[in-house]
Amino acid sequence: MSQDKKGTIGPESLLEAWMKSAADFWGSMARMWTGASGISETSTTSKEGDKSRVQESMESALKMWQTLSSTMGEPGAMDSLFQGTSALPKILMKMAQTGWDGYFHLQQQWLERIGRIGQRTEAYKFESLDQDAFKAWMEIYEKEFKQFLNIPQLGLTRFYQERIGRFTDKFNLFQGAMAEFMYLVYLPMEKSFKVMQEKVEELTKEERLPENPQDYYRMWLKILEGHYMTLFKSPEYSQIQSKTLNVMEDFMIARQEFLQDALQSLPIPTNKDMDELYKDLHHLKKKVRELSKKVDKE
Amino acid sequence: MAQPKIPVDLILEKLAEDAEKAQERAKKAPDVLLGPLNTDMATTPSEIVYEEDRVKVRHYLPVTETKFKTPLFVVYALINRETMLDLQQGRSVVQNFLKEGIDLYMNDWGYPTRKDKFLTIDDHVNGYMDNAIDFIRRRHNIAKINLMGICIGGTFSVIYAALHPEKIKNLITTVTPFDFDTDTGLLHIWMKEIDVDKMMDAFGNMPGDLMNFGFLLLNPARLVIDKYVGFTENIDKKDFVENFIRMEKWIFDSPDVPGETFRQMIKDWYQKNLLIQNKMVVGGKRVDVKKITMPLLNIFGEFDHLVPPAAASPLADAVGSKDTETLCIPTGHIGIYVSSKSQKAFSPKIVRWLKERDE
To answer: Alpha-carbon distance B305 to B104, whole Å?
Structure first.
């Protein structure tokens, strides 16, 4: 075993020693195998000495491992291997860094939101609609992750792979848009609780608190109804609703394409097949009706 | 500083009372829910006299002597089902008409499937409606019939009357959208933004479930929360439960709308508002509402959130007829047919109006 000046053993020398012993191991395995099968390495093919295909492939596999081990045992081999594999950690580091950056960006959004707790809320108004967190996530997804799903595919099955990538991409976009929409629809609920709380405080100060719990329920319901009306009439809501529908429809179309590929191998007609039939049927029926009306008139 | 007086003891006392009442109701509820409940709808006897594809025309069996020379054909909307006009005893427009001696026909659009996705407004109006009306005219050996449209069925009736005025004696439109360029209804605001082409590519037909979800969103506080709170507060009352379940059955019984029809409805009506401008084209012909020269009765609900007054009221002024009447009833979109108050205003008014024009 080689040692450096200070007497410690380096990783390269350990690896070299391990490779050398691996080469010896595989070599002895190969000799044992040929000994056990009763066939020497130099024997020519004869009627009694015919090698079976299994024996031949075992022999070549063992010889390959022996060669590989011997090669890796040479001093320069490990250096070049390490140089080649050092690129992989760089890629992994980049992906991890992207993930961390995204996480910190989101955390910033959350902290800003938390900071707003305790501030006075104005009834029937939605300040900035709290959409920044969703926008941040979608930005991260679109800039950093979406590109991996849109890498051009190669080979015979490239179209199928592209459709799978598109399906996955549209699914992710749909999840994001749906989360944003559901959150938006939940906002008036959250707001109504805050406004209700302030109203109760006001009534308490004026000593006009109702005694009937039903009155509190009706008060809260009216506040909630008003908030929903305000939200639903806003152009921002119409745009988000429209965007959510569009993204959902894109996902459905991508899913249909993906499922069609899967169904092709089964004896099941797809929507696309049936739609073509239905269209023909519709035109034929219309034509028949027009013609029979003409005949009836005559 | 004096502490504000909070009647905590009274509030708690009330809460305890309410909890006791809720417990009483919960004890009786299983008897009601697990017992026999009459939730049938559309029980007025009728026979199917005409069928074409998924579309049927029902003729209601007379309960008294027919007092009108001209039969009435009611065209319902493509959204939800016509069973609402015959909801239950005491809340049935169909029964009210029959009692007054009207010879009544009503269409049933059925349940569209994917096969129907290519049907357009032309197929519905110049196809199914025209064929049904021709059938009724031949059956009675008359040149014209009375036509009444409900909601989108009313819009179809307006288009039909403009394209075939020679076949319609009197036209009645109820909660019928005509001017779609208004911001007083949420549907009108939302429909302007949707990409209906992409929607139809994805869905084929417009799913009834998606439309139901949209209708619930119009007022989630009342339709998703308060409605069911009210149900739990009356869960021990058999009549209330029966009526409630009947309405639930109707409201969520939503057929899909054929794709091409929905596409044209959104583009030509909600987004371009072509009908009121006399620019809408159906079956290659421009729909000119000035050609509606027969008497028109237009009824709408003051508190209708689906077809607000601004969308329904302009019809009478837009048509060519000199005999027009507009009636606004203080109720909502469905209430106009099913509320007990409207029963006294709605059906009797239509009967009187038709009687005056039944020569």
So the answer is: 29
Cβ contacts of B117 on chain A, cutoff 8 Å: 275, 278
Q: Rounded CA gap, B253 and B39, in Å?
A: 14
- The whole-angstrom separation of Cα B234 and Cα B240 is 7
Question: Is residue B204 included in any domain, yes or no?
Answer: no
pLDDT tens for chain A, 298 residues long, are 444 444 555 666 776 677 777 777 777 777 777 676 555 444 444 444 556 777 888 888 888 877 777 777 776 766 777 666 676 777 777 777 777 777 777 777 667 766 665 555 566 666 555 566 777 778 878 877 787 787 788 888 888 898 999 999 999 999 999 999 999 999 999 999 999 999 989 888 888 888 888 899 999 999 999 999 999 999 889 999 999 999 999 999 999 999 988 888 888 888 888 999 999 999 999 999 889 989 988 8
From A144's Cα to the closest Cα of chain B, the distance in A is 27
Total number of domains in chain B: 1
Dist. CA A43–CA A49, nearest whole Å: 8
Contact B192 A185 (CB under 8 A): no
Domain that holds residue B50: 46-185+261-356
Q: Is residue B157 part of a domain?
A: yes
φ/ψ bin of B267: left (φ > 0), alpha (ψ from -120 to 50), beta (otherwise): alpha
Minimum CA–CA partner of A217 in chain B: B226
Burial class (CB in 10 A: 0-12, 13-18, 19+), B300: buried
What's B181's domain CATH number? 3.40.50.1820
Q: Which amino acid is at A199?
A: K
- Whole-angstrom CA distances from B177 to A186, B119, B181, B307, B313 are 31, 21, 10, 6, 8
CA distance B313 to B316: 7
B151 is catalytic: yes
**Location of structure tokens 């709408």:** B300
What's this model's pTM, rounded to 2 decimal places? 0.80
The reply to whether B194 touches chain A by the CB within 8 Å rule is yes
From chain A residues 187-246, the ones with a CB under 8 A of any chain B CB are 204-207, 209, 211-214, 217, 221, 224-225, 228-229, 232-233, 238-239, 241-242, 245-246
Q: Where are the domains of chain A?
A: 11-42+50-85, 94-254, 268-298
